[in-house]
Specification:
By secondary structure, this protein is α+β, with helices and mostly antiparallel strands. The chain is 30% helix and 25% strand. The chain folds into 3 domains: 86 residues, Rossmann fold (3-Layer(aba) Sandwich), CATH 3.40.50; 71 residues, ATP-grasp fold, A domain (Dna Ligase, domain 1, 2-Layer Sandwich); 192 residues, D-amino Acid Aminotransferase, Chain A, domain 1. It contains 12 helices and 17 strands. Helix 1 packs across helix 10, helix 4 crosses helix 5 and helix 11 packs antiparallel against helix 12. It is globular and about 55 Å long. The chain binds adenosine-5'-triphosphate (ATP) and magnesium ion.
């Protein structure tokens, strides 16, 4: 019998926003959070507190839930397999999740599927890296296969010297002590993209798929700063191809829930290559909360419960989402009186986190018929939350 309970591992803003969608549908979202006063722990009553790798806690989390899902990919695959063998519905499955956890596994699987990627190689030694760079041209991009996020674990490299620490296995230190067991690194050509795109789709276990309009994303220092949907002026044929790539990946990897495919577009050449995958709601899809008929958070819940999916069409011609990354205000809510007076159309989403330099504290979405006006509202509102001097 359905208990309308979804268990989610993770206590950040994604679980928090999933909670808003769950609340509207009267679905119970039971979260396993890192801290009771974190982004999700604060607002989801009855959250369990523990690490994603705490097996006893995960067992407790799934008891009485219809399905187990995640807000990040750093999960204990062996334990999830054991749970699935015991009959727990794990969405997405461990087999799918592997390709979002490990960029080397993702690259080889996408190659098998015939999905175009930047030129890449697995390198275990500085010498192998040297020959790759000599072949495709320097600089190249070197990535830790797993554990990276927000551009940590990604380096623009002019010579093997620049990643000597990673070859010595010291990559772990920069990533919060995540233990790194792989010995190899992923190296890629540095793609001269005209812009970055994100194709967002959702798929349920029955195989139904829906795709949102393709968005343009802007990354600053490896962190997403702004998203515009749909991607302005994108050749419709390229947009369709981007969606088709995401559908091919969702089906080929048997992904369930939301799948975000980050892509590079080289528009002069009509070329699109895949950067990476996320199997959960994604920063590039936050605009859907205010700008689309069905938000990515609602859709993720529907998908993992194997319910019919909602419409993914945009409700307005343009949506612009700007991230709030750090603030000089001790509490960004101090800006509310001015912000709300000046930008009545701005939709503010704060994640309930303490202020730290560069930290993702929230986002603002502005929607409308006029792209420039929407940009101005979203950027202006975020500037106030950031405490920028006028
Ligand atoms: N092959 C490449 N060529 C050019 N730029 C790249 C390449 N790979 C990554 N980048 C740049 O670095 C950014 C971060 O890379 P990537 O998405 O792989 O890292 P991440 O840390 O996993 O990021 P996320 O925050 O999405 O989890 C990309 O959005 C892009 O701007
Ligand atoms: Mg990325």
């Amino acid at each position: 019998m359905t208990s309308w309970t979804v268990a989610v591992v993770g206590g950040g803003q994604l679980a928090r926003m999933m909670g808003e969608a769950a609340s509207a549908l009267d679905i119970r979202l039971q979260a396993l959070v890192e801290a009771p006063d974190g982004s999700a722990g604060k607002v989801l009553p009855g959250s369990l507190v523990g690490a994603a790798h705490d097996r006893a806690k995960v067992d407790e989390l799934v008891a009485g839930a219809d399905v187990l899902t995640f807000e990040h990919e750093m999960q204990d695959g062996d334990h999830l397999r054991a749970l699935a063998a015991r009959g727990v519905s794990v969405q997405p499955s461990v087999d799918a999740l592997t390709f979002a956890q490990n960029k080397l596994a993702m690259r080889s699987r996408l190659a098998e599927l015939g999905v175009e990627c930047p030129a890449w190689a697995e390198v275990a030694t500085p010498r192998e890296l040297q020959s790759f760079g000599d072949a495709v041209g320097w600089p190249v991009i070197v990535k830790l296969p797993s554990g990276g996020y927000d551009g940590k674990g990604v380096r623009l490299v002019d010579s093997p010297e620049d990643v000597a620490d990673w070859f010595r296995g010291a990559g772990a230190g920069g990533l919060g002590g995540e233990s790194r067991t792989e010995s190899a690194l992923l190296v890629e050509e540095c793609v001269p993209f005209t812009r970055e795109l994100a194709a967002l789709v959702a798929r349920n276990p029955s195989g139904e798929i829906r795709a949102w309009p393709v968005a343009e994303t802007v990354q600053a220092n490896g962190v997403c700063s702004e998203v515009t949907a749909p991607a302005p002026g994108l050749d419709p044929a390229l947009a369709e191809r981007a969606q088709q790539i995401a559908v091919t990946i969702a089906e080929g990897l048997d992904v369930t829930g939301v799948l975000a495919v980050e892509m590079f577009a080289v528009e002069g050449e009509g070329r699109i290559t895949v950067n990476e995958l996320a199997m959960r709601p994604h920063n590039s899809g936050h605009w859907t909360i205010d700008g689309a008929v069905t938000s990515q958070f609602e859709q993720h819940l529907r998908a993992v419960l194997d319910l019919p999916l909602g419409e993914t069409t945009a409700k307005v011609p343009w949506s612009v989402m700007v991230n709030l990354l750090g603030s000089s205000l001790s509490d960004p809510r101090e800006a509310y009186p001015e912000l709300m007076a000046k930008y009545p159309g701005a939709k503010v989403h704060l994640y309930g986190k303490g202020v730290r330099p560069g930290r993702k504290l929230g986002h603002v979405t502005a929607c409308g018929d006029d792209l420039e006006a929407a940009r101005e509202v979203a950027r202006g509102a975020v500037a106030l939350l950031r405490g920028d001097d006028a």
